[in-house]
Amino acid sequence: MDHGGTILIDRQRIRTRVHEMGQALSDDLAASLAKEGQDALLHADRIVMVPIMTGAMIFTADLIREMPLKMSIRLVTVSSYPGQSTQSRGASLRSALPDDLAGHHVVLIDDILDTGRTLKLVRDLVMEQSPASVRSCVLLNKPERREEDIIAEHVGFDIPDEFVVGYGLDYDGFYRNLPEIVSLPE
Ligand code: IMP
Ligand code: MG
User: Fold this and answer.
1) Reduced to 3 states, what is the DSSP secondary structure of residue 180?
2) Does residue 113 have its Cβ closer than 6 Å to ligand 1?
3) What SS3 state is found at 181?
4) Domains of the chain as residue ranges with CATH
5) Theoretical Cys-Cys bridge with 156: which of 33, 51, 71, 139, CB 3.0 to 4.6 Å?
6) 111 is catalytic
7) Which entry of 100, 114, 161, 172 is annotated as an active-site residue?
8) Are 93 and 77 in contact (CB under 8 A)?
9) Nearest Cα residue to 181 out of 141, 146, 143
10) How does strand 181-183 pair with strand 6-9?
11) Nearest to 141 by CA among 115, 159, 117, 128
């Protein structure tokens, strides 16, 4: 596919890192359950993965298959408005958030943590339901772009402030199906 960009992270590096992330996230969740006296593999029926659509689609599909835990998956859709003026910026929920997260271990999954508005919006709403824990897991992180006071506990790659597509990330709805992370020219 002709995208005119440069490959920033190739397929093999993505595969290796997603495998590591699946293990680290599983260990992290298992540790939380163990603290409650639960056996992760047998009784982890309170783990809820919440992928933020559409960007997290491909990352989520690969990540969860690296996690040998019992889990449920609940999608949410968030639209972001990257406009020039402060007023037009923001993120809004486009689908209902699951309303039964109380006492559950919730993992928010997104393709990229940029300004932080998307994750902050969803995380704040999830917190209102008194979950047992909330974690955020993102494949990419642009630390220089942060505007909200938020971190992701699990990060695949820190990247510079460049616009990237592929592996779920889009430009105007396209290029999500590229198998690598590609940096587009300005
Ligand atoms: P935030 O709310 O500013 O943190 O942005 C998160 C959302 O913006 C992500 O879920 C992406 O959909 C989108 N986004 C941010 N940076 C990029 C990029 O470089 N390429 C494609 N989408 C991006
Ligand atoms: Mg997007």
Assistant:
1) coil
2) yes
3) strand
4) 11-76+92-162 (3.40.50.2020)
5) 139
6) no
7) 114
8) yes
9) 141
10) antiparallel
11) 159
pLDDT tens per residue across span 9-59: 999 999 999 999 999 999 999 999 888 876 655 556 899 999 999 999 999
CB 134 within 8 A of CB 118: no
**Residue 154 has what DSSP assignment?**
E
Q: What is the C-alpha separation between 174 and 166, in angstroms, rounded? A: 9
Nearest CA residue ID for atom 12, ligand 1: 55
Three-class DSSP labels, 36-105 = CCCCHHHHCCCEEEEEEECCCHHHHHHHHCCCCCCCEECCEEEEEEECCCHHHEEEEECCCCCCCCCCCE
pLDDT of residue 84: 47
CA-CA distance, 84 to 122, in Å (whole number)? 23
Is 48:107 a contact under the CB 8 Å cutoff? Answer: yes
Q: Determine the Cα–Cα distance for residues 127 and 124; give it in Å rounded to an integer.
A: 5
Exposure string for 14-35, b = 16+ CB within 10 A, e = fewer? beeebeebbeebbebbbebbee
- Does residue 40 line the site of ligand 1, with CB under 6 A? no
Cβ–ligand 1 distance for 116 under 6 Å, the answer: yes
CB neighbours of residue 138 within 10 Å? 27
pTM > 0.85: yes or no: yes
